[in-house]
Amino acid sequence: xxxxxxxxxxxxxxxxxxxxxxxxxxxxxxxxxxxxxxxxxxxxxxxxxxxxxxxxxxxxxxxxxxxxxxxxxxxxxxxxxxxxxxxxxxxxxxxxxxxxxxxxxxxxxxxxxxxxxxxxxxxxxxxxxxxxxxxxxxxxxxxxxxxxxxxxxxxxxxxxxxxxxxxxxxxxxxxxxxxxxxxxxxxxxxxxxxxxxxxxxxxxxxxxxxxxxxxxxxxxxxxxxxxxxxxxxxxxxxxxxxxxxxxxxxxxxxxxxxxxxxxxxxxxxxxxxxxxxxxxxxxxxxxxxxxxxxxxxxxxxxxxxxxxxxxxxxxxxxxxxxxxxxxxxxxxxxxxxx
Length: 338
Hints:
338 residues; mainly beta; Porin; 14-stranded antiparallel β-barrel; 18 strands
């Protein structure tokens, strides 16, 4: 136990100054930073050490190893600029082997008119960019206190006839110090650079000095490779049971980014009879203590267990957005089988 605490503390200390604001706008695959799951979003992304089941895959895959059951999850979010985010995941426990899951996240950007130099107001055609992330997750409960997990992701971006593909890895650990206190750490989006390529980068031009009527020469624009937005998170949570029916959970997470400001997350959850939940959260940037674009969050949840070992969860979250006219609304439905 002491060794685990020492390692987590050392990693936390070395990451305190990881944020590099000067590198803003230098990474791509920003869809990796869009969270999923109403419970995780309603609590401000602070429950890195306590989230379990399929919803934990995005925040800390180690939490997926805690549920010894089969589970399916669908989440939908109305994001910003008329963008909608859909997320589906399904997983099961394989006994001593561990737990495995498959997840898919897509962005619906809508149709965008095609414009050219000759037709700046549009050609009458349109295209729809595609942003897809597919994850394969493995998690395992090592002891009654420690769980670990990894999530391998395929990242795909397509804009008309140009596309980029890459791979990334998430890894995390959750440690339950006692029934009240839990710790967690996760490293996200570790992978190589991505580069756009495709038919859309091929251009045709007239070679200078060529004879009239000569065919145009074709060349391909070489796109600059870009990094993906990796970051490290460490979290602590405290759970207090007022009695058998009422529970209160408080958590905080520190995020050390490689190309953005570092961030502090705060979250809380009140639970009644493990069936009804009220949640709230807040994000704060460490740079000059500025407020994040996504500030206050809140939500609620309902859990219902059937007599035959089945269960149904419904969660809702609201997230305030300071830079856009519309806020985020998130709906999540989960079904599980013992």
